[in-house]
Design a protein that fits this description.
The chain is an alpha/beta fold and about 350 residues long. The chain has 2 domains: about 5-135 and about 210-335, TIM Barrel, CATH 3.20.20; about 135-205, no CATH class. Helices cover about 45% and strands about 10% of the residues. It contains 15 helices and 10 strands. It has helices at about 5-15, 25, 40-45, 55-70, 75-85, 105-115, 125-130, 135-150, 155-165, 175-185, 190-200, 215-225, 245-260, 280-285, 330-335, and strands at about 30-35, 40, 55, 70-75, 95-100, 120-125, 230, 270, 290-295, 310-315. Strand 5, helix 6 (about 105-115) and strand 6 form a beta-alpha-beta unit. Bound molecules: zinc ion. Zinc ion (ZN) binds near residues 99, 100, 232, 236 and 272. Zinc ion binds near residues 99 and 272.
Length: about 350
């Protein structure tokens, strides 16, 4: 742990004890929204390319224990409407969201949510679910991991493919995270070409079973539990890259299909990768949604744009001490207006 992190964590504990960062004080009168992706046991997290996107069921349980003490928790549609009506409960409003419709949301998050009597929102990339085909960043991630594990020239092959795409694997994170970050800068066509080239080079090794997406049947069960289902587009494309026609398809068709599959009104849109601009937000509004969420860090006040709501991404290791124990003060600090005063 760096000296800066140790200092920041000490300050977080101190000001939490003083009550300064307690949600009841800092987040009152605002709508906080938290984001999760995968919920997987530790062994699966180790085998997943982007461990920062995974919390274990035990970690999710710790998050929910904290949230239910300090916040009034629920699905986004309900919490947002309460917020808009001017409700300011003693425990501030918080909405829980899960992106990408991973199967583990059904198998691992659902029972934890039930135990805490909390409803959440699940955002579904419709075509990926329909075809049961992994999202491009997962296909890329598993292909890179497979190539790195190959003893006979896998790494060289990976470097050759990256060079052909004009990318480098260097950067501040793990190699696979650097590659996915660089791939996001490519045009849609070049990115898909890269994913196909990597998948082909990695061979027929199937992605592990834990990485699969939910089925529509499982999604309908979540809806029947009282959870909110929202759209995460048709193809999980980066929306600002789409022309007007593609944009209309991504937002309107996904809404129509999800309404048909769940029998629930689909009112919330979640921008893939959080990418939104004024034009995409307009398309979402025109398609009949009532709100949309980005991945921009923060909570929402009365001046919030309902089609570009801010969210807090939940990364387990950032709210744990060096032994992996959940530290409420660190989460409170991150979700207070004081963060990131001492750096991230
Ligand atoms: Zn996504």
């Amino acid at each position: 742990m760096s000296a800066k992190t140790i200092l920041r964590n000490s300050v977080a504990r101190l000001i939490f004890q003083m009550g300064i960062t307690r949600p009841e004080r800092c987040s009152r009168g605002r709508l906080s929204i938290v984001t999760f992706h995968h919920v997987l046991p530790e062994a699966d997290r180790q085998a997943y390319p982007y461990s920062g996107l995974v919390v274990t069921p035990e970690e999710l349980d710790a998050f929910l224990t904290y949230f239910t003490v300090h916040f009034d928790c629920g699905a986004l549609a309900a919490q947002h409407e309460r917020y808009l009506s001017g409700e300011t409960p003693a425990r501030p409003l918080l909405a829980l969201t899960f992106d990408d419709a991973q199967h583990d949301n059904y198998s691992f998050a659902r029972p934890v949510l039930a135990r805490h009597h909390v409803k959440a929102s699940f955002f579904v990339p419709v075509v990926a679910v329909e075809r049961q085909k992994l999202l491009w960043h997962d296909r890329l991630g598993f292909a890179v991991l497979t190539l790195l594990k190959q003893t006979h020239g896998g790494r060289e092959q990976l470097m050759r493919i990256l060079a052909t795409a004009g990318l480098s694997a260097s950067g501040p994170h793990s190699m696979v995270s650097n590659v996915v970050g660089a791939a996001k800068e490519l045009t849609l066509e070049a990115r898909l070409r890269l994913v196909e080239a990597l998948a082909e080079a990695a061979g027929a090794t199937p992605a592990p079973e834990f990485a699969r997406l939910m089925t529509f049947e499982e999604i309908a069960w979540l809806a029947a539990d009282g959870h909110e289902i929202g759209s995460h587009s048709m193809t999980h494309c980066l929306m600002p890259e789409c022309d007007d026609r593609a944009l209309a398809y991504e937002v309107a068709e996904s809404r129509r299909m999800l309404q048909a599959r769940t029998g629930q009104p689909i009112e919330t849109f979640c921008y893939p990768n959080g990418n939104a601009d004024a034009r995409t937000a307009r398309a979402v509004a025109q398609a009949g949604y009532r709100r949309a969420v980005t991945t921009t860090w923060g909570n929402n006040g009365q001046d919030a744009d309902r089609f570009q709501l801010l969210r807090y991404d939940m990364v387990a290791r950032r709210v744990q001490d060096s032994s992996g124990k959940f530290v409420p003060a660190q989460l409170a600090f991150r979700m207070s207006g004081f963060y990131p005063g001492l750096g991230s």
